[in-house]
Amino acid sequence: MRSICVLFLHGLTVCASHAQTFDLEQFEQVFRPRLRIDGRFQPESAFRDTTGGFSNAEGTAVLTFPIASRFKAGFELDTAARGLREVLTNSVHVEARQLLGSVRLGARQVQIGFDSTRVRNLFTASAGLMCIHLTRKLRVLFWSVNVNVSEEDRTFGSAVPRFNGAVGKWRLKGLRKQFYYGLALSYTDRLVLPIPFLGGVAPLGGDWSFQYMLPAQVGIGYRPKAGTRILAGITADGFRSGMEWQGERANLNQGSMRAFLNVRHRLSRSLQLRADVGYALAQSVRITERDASRDRYPVEPAFTVGLGVNVLFGGSVMQRLLDDVLK
Predict the structure, then answer these.
(1) For 196-232, what is each residue's pLDDT tens digit?
(2) Per-residue pLDDT averaged across 42-71, rounded?
(3) Which residues contact 327 (CB under 8 A, 6 or more apart)?
(4) DSSP E strands, 153-270
(5) CA 266 to centroid of chain Cα atoms
(6) Which entry of 98, 175, 226, 242 is 20 to 30 Å from 301 by CA?
């Protein structure tokens, strides 16, 4: 189950650029043109069943940019409608859609202390498309497709591309209540993995909210003041990369179940900062060849720390929908 959650987080590119904690109250920002920069560090933690230890230091930059967009609103009275509510629903016509592109680059230095190559330098690059479209029933339909290459510096010559996609619907039921669902699909090393997903935010009273993105994350959110969000919970986390192992290419898979505390603060309309601290309750490293299991190495629990920044820019159809239509 842990490896499935790792692939889910890696494949569900519409919800997150890579496996990290995710604030569902900021779901709409996935569809905004932006530059997102993240860094995270996990100090060395010992393997349970063998010598050596595992550590991870990573950095990622994601650029999301608009390709095409349309927003048009009009009114045409529906004289055949029965009742005021039906008149309002059928007479107001809103056409809204936006197509965005994304490019992600990342580097990771991993220490695996039980073989002759103690430090591994891993790199990742991906490109994709994502789209939102407002339906006649005022639901937001979204989809994304993505191609990714993640390899060690010594295996780029035999790199294996991975393909991910997702499609779903998003509903806003109030200022602080939202719900979405859909299907994510991942294709890697001849393995096709479809995973349904379900997410949402429900108010708990005051400035508190319950957030969930199944099967990957649950959490409790809190807004102490305008522009600041705190989120605490449990999430499935991890990464997957090609690497050289015993003279041939294999896949390095790291997965964990992590408790986290995430703080986000908006400095201005276009700049946001994030800080994250976590504790891997259970984690392991697996080495596989064409998804046939070779070895699995449990890792002792460990803390992680992370920092990030969002720079928002350009026009956002999603923001106009929230400001002018859905709210």
Answers:
(1) 989 888 889 888 999 998 888 999 999 998 889 999 9
(2) 89
(3) 172, 175
(4) 162-172, 178-188, 191-205, 208-214, 217-225, 228-245, 248-266
(5) 20
(6) 242
